[in-house]
């Protein structure tokens, strides 16, 4: 029954009209593919058809089907007035007055204090961009690529120059990866249209990847970090088992796709070296083809046209492919160690329906601030602040961090900060621990 019993369960959303009221129990029934409702600020929306056109992909909304999506909605959309225009036709009613604004017994005090914190950060101007920061960042990426060509132009393609060229290109690709991340999160321009356009240029033309592929994958990670079956970043294709829950489940079911008790060793062979050159490249092409994403494919082709026109004269076609493969190999190591140091050692579990603050802090930690760490990781050493406020320009994370830490202390939420080397070692330690849990469950449960 919804609305204090004034309507029956048999009435559809269309029968009830836009001013109908619903209980959480009724909303939670609409959580299947093809029948998905979400709640934003107590308003109930039927997004079953809209998910097909959602710029962030269908899955990120699907992960909140039947739930309150208010905190995720405000975190992902910098221009909420624009987005509400798309929501308005989807409105089917609102929560009954007797219903709490929070579902699944979330802590209302944490939700309210986090909302107040975001308002304070906005008042301090921490969601405003310093254009010079991103101009300089783009400039140094272009400079690195220009230097690699200048080496070849002036001194030829000898071994020393080739090694220097590889290092310059790998650095440029890694730094361009952090830069596309900024535009993908709509954290640079006031207009999201410009963010989307420059994002396609950076990830497509400068990196040879797909903006939509990145958006649809990465937003799921932010929406439900370290949540099994919802965060694609913890879907290891049965090659690894992560956390304390999944290994035991695999062990009890006697699943042995790999010798998981040795995963902390073979991780070095299948993780850092292969993620970008093999898995990402295949998945990008597959996604663009399946989705018929010819715009992103055109941007993708401009990268390879530019790359081969620049390097074939020095290395030939096959030599240029070898050069690019080595660059991707180094870039992949850089990417994996930076992106996984904040997540793999943290809690990985099935859906717990936590508040936004609690969910992100369970799955995320920071790495100590320094000029090198900021540059090397693209400010993802402030992963906590980035996950809490994904549209905040990264140069402002350092200013937001003390206020976030204070809020965490108030509510007893753990705020972890590690050294860079410690964070990397924790990846391996975590894999070893998970492997032992699997083996114990496999043998004894």
UniProtKB/TrEMBL annotation:
<comment type="pathway">
    <text>Lipid metabolism; polyunsaturated fatty acid biosynthesis.</text>
</comment>
<comment type="similarity">
    <text>Belongs to the fatty acid desaturase type 1 family.</text>
</comment>
<feature type="domain" description="Cytochrome b5 heme-binding">
    <location>
        <begin position="19"/>
        <end position="96"/>
    </location>
</feature>
<feature type="transmembrane region" description="Helical">
    <location>
        <begin position="266"/>
        <end position="291"/>
    </location>
</feature>
<dbReference type="InterPro" id="IPR001199">
    <property type="entry name" value="Cyt_B5-like_heme/steroid-bd"/>
</dbReference>
<dbReference type="InterPro" id="IPR012171">
    <property type="entry name" value="Fatty_acid_desaturase"/>
</dbReference>
<dbReference type="Pfam" id="PF00487">
    <property type="entry name" value="FA_desaturase"/>
</dbReference>
<dbReference type="InterPro" id="IPR036400">
    <property type="entry name" value="Cyt_B5-like_heme/steroid_sf"/>
</dbReference>
<keyword id="KW-0275">Fatty acid biosynthesis</keyword>
<keyword id="KW-1133">Transmembrane helix</keyword>
<keyword id="KW-0444">Lipid biosynthesis</keyword>
<dbReference type="InterPro" id="IPR005804">
    <property type="entry name" value="FA_desaturase_dom"/>
</dbReference>
<keyword id="KW-0472">Membrane</keyword>
<keyword id="KW-0276">Fatty acid metabolism</keyword>
<keyword id="KW-0560">Oxidoreductase</keyword>
<feature type="transmembrane region" description="Helical">
    <location>
        <begin position="132"/>
        <end position="153"/>
    </location>
</feature>
<dbReference type="Pfam" id="PF00173">
    <property type="entry name" value="Cyt-b5"/>
</dbReference>
<keyword id="KW-0443">Lipid metabolism</keyword>
<dbReference type="GO" id="GO:0016717">
    <property type="term" value="F:oxidoreductase activity, acting on paired donors, with oxidation of a pair of donors resulting in the reduction of molecular oxygen to two molecules of water"/>
</dbReference>
<dbReference type="GO" id="GO:0006636">
    <property type="term" value="P:unsaturated fatty acid biosynthetic process"/>
</dbReference>
<feature type="transmembrane region" description="Helical">
    <location>
        <begin position="159"/>
        <end position="179"/>
    </location>
</feature>
<dbReference type="GO" id="GO:0016020">
    <property type="term" value="C:membrane"/>
</dbReference>
<keyword id="KW-0812">Transmembrane</keyword>
<feature type="transmembrane region" description="Helical">
    <location>
        <begin position="311"/>
        <end position="330"/>
    </location>
</feature>
<protein>
    <recommendedName>
        <fullName>Cytochrome b5 heme-binding domain-containing protein</fullName>
    </recommendedName>
</protein>
């Amino acid at each position: 029954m919804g609305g204090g019993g004034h309507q029956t369960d048999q009435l559809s959303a269309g029968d009830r009209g836009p001013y109908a009221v619903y209980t959480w129990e009724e909303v939670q029934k609409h959580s299947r593919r093809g029948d998905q409702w979400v709640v934003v600020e107590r308003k109930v929306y039927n997004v079953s058809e809209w998910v097909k056109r959602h710029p962030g992909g269908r899955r990120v909304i699907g992960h909140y089907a039947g739930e309150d999506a208010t905190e995720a909605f405000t975190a992902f959309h910098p221009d909420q007035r624009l987005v509400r225009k798309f929501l308005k036709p989807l409105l089917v009613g609102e929560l009954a007055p007797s219903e709490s604004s929070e579902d699944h017994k979330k802590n209302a005090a944490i939700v309210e204090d986090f909302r107040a914190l975001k308002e304070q950060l906005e008042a301090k101007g921490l969601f405003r961009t310093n254009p010079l920061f991103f101009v300089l960042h783009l400039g140094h990426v272009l400079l690195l690529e220009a230097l690699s060509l200048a080496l070849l132009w002036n001194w030829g393609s000898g071994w020393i120059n080739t090694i220097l060229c590889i290092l310059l290109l790998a650095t440029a690709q890694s730094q361009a990866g952090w830069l596309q991340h900024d535009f993908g999160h709509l954290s640079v321009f006031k207009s999201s249209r410009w963010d989307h356009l420059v994002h396609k240029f950076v990830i497509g033309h400068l990196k040879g990847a797909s903006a939509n592929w990145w958006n649809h994958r990465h937003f799921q990670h932010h929406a439900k970090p370290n949540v099994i079956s919802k965060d694609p970043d913890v879907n290891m294709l049965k090659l690894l088992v992560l956390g304390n829950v999944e290994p035991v489940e695999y062990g009890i079911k006697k699943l042995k796709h790999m010798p998981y008790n040795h995963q902390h060793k073979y991780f070095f062979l299948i993780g850092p070296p292969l993620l970008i050159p093999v898995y990402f490249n295949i998945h990008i092409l597959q996604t663009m083809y399946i989705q018929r994403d010819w715009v992103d494919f055109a941007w993708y082709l401009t990268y390879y046209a530019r790359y081969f026109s620049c390097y074939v004269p020095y290395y030939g076609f096959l030599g240029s492919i070898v050069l690019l493969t080595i660059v991707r190999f180094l870039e992949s190591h850089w990417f994996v160690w930076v992106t996984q140091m904040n997540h793999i050692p943290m809690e990985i579990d099935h859906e717990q329906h936590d508040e936004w603050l609690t969910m992100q802090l369970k799955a995320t930690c920071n790495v100590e601030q320094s000029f090198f760490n900021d540059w090397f990781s693209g400010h993802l050493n402030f992963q906590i602040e980035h996950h809490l406020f994904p549209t905040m320009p990264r140069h402002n994370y350092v200013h937001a961090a003390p206020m976030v830490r204070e809020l965490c202390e108030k509510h007893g939420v753990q705020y972890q900060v590690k050294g860079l080397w410690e964070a990397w070692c924790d990846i391996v330690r975590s894999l070893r621990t998970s492997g032992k849990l699997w083996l114990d469950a496999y043998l004894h449960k």
